[in-house]
TrEMBL record:
Gene: Coro2b
This protein's name: Coronin
Family recorded in the similarity comment: Belongs to the WD repeat coronin family.
Species the sequence originates in: Edolisoma coerulescens
Keyword Coiled coil among record annotations: yes
One Pfam family of this chain: WD40
WD repeat positions: 78-120, 128-170, 171-212
Alphabetical keyword list: Actin-binding, Coiled coil, Repeat, WD repeat
Record-linked PROSITE patterns: WD_REPEATS_1 (PS00678), WD_REPEATS_2 (PS50082), WD_REPEATS_REGION (PS50294)
Length: 475
């Protein structure tokens, strides 16, 4: 019997990555040098937003996608934050609304005018204050309009209802800095990774922890829900300090379904999942390559496909929503790669090679669209609903009719779960306690020096007085 190689049947086996030519890149951008582990980039079908290096506050650029080529140094920016901008995310239902968070403890909502910025924008349509320390992550709800989550360095996750401009819920189950958040497909569950080495699955409206994993062998950094498969994928570091991914059952986090080591490099692994094609993309911070896999429902669950290679290291990656892809070119995913050394944003298209130029329905199933399935009040009352799907056939370009209306309010306190967040004292980290201890020691030494100087001066005055008394009086 002759030996025959075992090939796995897959329509995505030959997917390849294609980098855009130089004239279709965005050049001359002062990409931020901040070392925070975020992408610093957000993309939708109309705009590209990039966090930039700036002095005296935080700023980011918003560039229309058709405006490729070299960007002028004096190009208008969004520059209202007083601290470095740490994360930006586009509203999935209103394409000109973007949320940003910063080291100045605020979350801000910006409305970008048609055609992009003509001058610097300093006034946000909504400023949200509730965190007592800097805010590292913002995340929009996948099916509900105007629900935004923010995670701060005060170890809290706040759920904001932008219809009223206030936090309506607080998730307070973490004991250290929150590293990543991910919603499942209908937004009923939230997965988080934390610096305390724990993976949690939380019911966001109640803040109740449904599942928790203490990851001792696999120190988790990033997590992503794998669509509606009731599974999670995490990236992290093994006990031998090698980069690793793990697959979990969301209803039982006692043990991962599989663990797979990737390589021995040190950069953080960013996972990206495409629920339509069941493909997983892994991009390392500081790497030049992007690996991609296909995820199945049966063992071995994870099948390696190929790797896109590039000599230029990436600082972060923005991802284009499905309705912004070029279906005529069989494009199934698109990255926007931040190359800090060149000040360049490079689009990378993942393409399924097909000879036919007709619409390929098998690689473009119905996908979540730009219409919300729920209002904030419905979701907060406990209703769950799957996203409203749309077809990409003949190019879906319909603009959303939803308009963002900022609430008018005067609020001197923010009370959630009976706690005034603006008055709440943040927890002290070990580094902060050490800095406080050293400051107190310095203050004690300073006071001792002042006392010793005063003692010396007192003795000098006493001696002068004694000498003055011993002077003989003139008769």
């Amino acid at each position: 019997m002759s030996w025959r190689p075992q090939y796995r049947s897959s329509k995505f086996r030959n997917v390849y990555g294609k980098a855009a030519s130089r004239e279709h890149c965005f050049d001359g951008i002062p990409i931020t040098k901040n070392v925070h582990d975020n992408h610093f980039c957000a993309v939708n079908a109309r705009f590209l937003a990039i966090v930039t290096e700036s002095a005296g506050g935080g700023s980011f650029l918003v560039i229309p996608l058709e405006q490729t080529g070299r960007i002028e140094p004096n190009y208008p920016k969004v520059c209202g934050h007083q601290g470095n901008v740490l994360d930006i995310k586009w509203n999935p239902f209103i394409e000109n609304i973007i949320a940003s968070c910063s080291e100045d403890t605020s979350v801000r909502i910006w409305e970008i005018p048609e055609g992009g910025l003509k001058r610097n924008m300093t006034e946000a349509v909504l400023e949200l204050y509730g965190h007592s320390r800097r805010v590292g992550i913002v995340e929009w709800h996948p099916t509900t309009n105007n629900i935004l989550l923010s995670a701060g360095y005060d170890y809290k996750v706040l759920i904001w209802n932008l219809d009223v401009g206030e936090p309506v819920k607080m998730i307070d189950c973490h004991t250290d800095v929150i590293l990543c958040m991910s919603f499942n497909s209908d937004g009923s569950l939230l997965a988080t990774t934390c610096k305390d080495k724990k993976l949690r699955v939380v019911e966001p409206r109640s803040g109740r922890v449904l599942q928790e994993a203490s990851c001792k062998n696999h120190r988790v950094n990033r997590v992503v829900f794998l669509g509606s498969t009731k599974r999670l994928l995490t990236t992290g570091v093994s006990r031998w300090n090698t980069r690793q991914i793990a697959l979990w059952d969301q209803e039982d986090l006692s043990m991962p379904l599989i663990e797979e080591e990737i390589d021995g490099l040190s950069g953080l692994l960013f996972p990206f999942y495409d629920a339509d094609t069941h493909m997983l993309y892994l991009a390392g911070k500081g790497d030049g390559n992007i690996r991609y896999y296909e995820i199945g429902s049966e063992k071995p669950y994870l099948s390696y496909l190929m790797e896109f290679r590039s000599p230029a290291p990436q600082k972060g990656l923005g991802v284009m929503p499905k309705h912004g892809l070029d279906v005529s070119a069989c494009e199934v995913f698109r990255f926007y790669k931040l190359i800090t050394l060149k000040g360049l944003i490079e689009p990378i298209s993942m393409i399924v090679p097909r000879r036919s130029e007709t619409y390929q329905e098998d690689i473009y199933p119905m996908t979540p669209g730009t219409e919300p399935a729920l209002t904030p009040d419905e979701w907060l009352s406990g209703v769950n609903r799957d996203p409203i799907l749309m077809s990409l056939k003949e190019g879906y370009k319909r603009n959303s009719k939803i308009v963002f209306k900022a609430p008018v309010r005067e609020k001197k306190s923010v009370v959630v779960n009976g706690i005034d967040l603006l008055e709440n004292v943040p927890p002290r980290t070990e580094n902060e306690l050490l800095r406080m201890f050293f400051r107190q020691q310095d203050e004690i030494r300073r006071l001792k020096d002042e006392l010793s100087q005063k003692d010396i001066r007192i003795r000098q005055l006493q001696l002068e007085l004694k000498n003055f008394r011993n002077i003989p009086k003139n008769n």
